[in-house]
Automatic annotation (TrEMBL):
InterPro entries: MethylDNA_cys_MeTrfase_DNA-bd (IPR014048), MethylDNA_cys_MeTrfase_DNAb (IPR036217), MGMT_N_sf (IPR036631), WH-like_DNA-bd_sf (IPR036388). Residues 77-161 form the Methylated-DNA-[protein]-cysteine S-methyltransferase DNA binding domain. This is Methylated-DNA--[protein]-cysteine S-methyltransferase. Transmembrane segments: none annotated. It is an enzyme of class 2 (transferase). It holds the Pfam family DNA_binding_1. GO terms for molecular function: methylated-DNA-[protein]-cysteine S-methyltransferase activity. The keyword RNA-binding does not apply. One of its GO terms (biological process) is methylation. It comes from the Bacteria.
Length: 177
């Protein structure tokens, strides 16, 4: 990791798959970024970064933890509709891009683009949206063996989603809508 890369973040928090980069601006969370193992932990540089780091660690201790962070306003009205729908998906469940699209009267590809544009992963759990026939993409990445889809697989297993656990751990998925 270069000093310039580390300087982009207000904190770098350890995560089971690597790290989470935290960017803050004017007392608000501006962005969360999944980071690979080549990064190193970085102490929070402000109160918002400290609160965010504490909440990320709390989530990794308990996947039912609910984030409560001041988020910087970003995104389009459409993205906000998608992000609200995603935020309503409970831990342990997933919806397909098509199901989310139907719920908000849109198209699956547009939902996928809005998921990829999510500035606050974990807080807005876009990992809970999958393709009809499998995992789908994640954070604008679709390399099956790549880092980002590995993070998505980890998060789905961590949250107890059926199909990402051992067969004996399968849980029932209930309809949200």
């Amino acid at each position: 990791m270069s000093l310039a890369e580390s300087a982009l973040f207000s904190a770098i928090v350890p995560a089971p798959f690597g790290y989470m980069g935290v960017r803050t601006e004017d007392g608000l969370l501006a962005e969360l970024v999944y980071l690979p193992n080549r990064f190193q932990e970085k102490a929070p540089s402000d109160a918002c970064a400290e609160k965010t780091a504490q909440q990320i660690l709390a989530y990794f201790d308990d996947p039912d933890f609910r984030f409560d962070l001041p988020l910087k306003q970003c995104g389009t009205d459409f993205q906000h509709r998608v992000w609200r729908a995603i935020s309503a998906i409970p831990r342990g469940q997933v919806k397909t891009y098509g199901e989310v699209a139907k719920h908000i009267a849109s198209a699956p590809r547009a939902v996928g683009q809005a998921c990829g544009a999510n500035w606050f992963p974990l807080v807005i759990p876009c990992h809970r949206v999958t393709a009809t026939g499998g995992l789908g993409g994640f954070a604008h990445h679709d390399d099956e063996s790549g880092f980002h889809l590995g993070v998505k697989r980890f998060l789905l297993r961590f949250e107890g989603v059926a199909g990402y656990l051992g067969e004996s751990d399968a849980i029932r998925q209930e309809s949200l809508w």
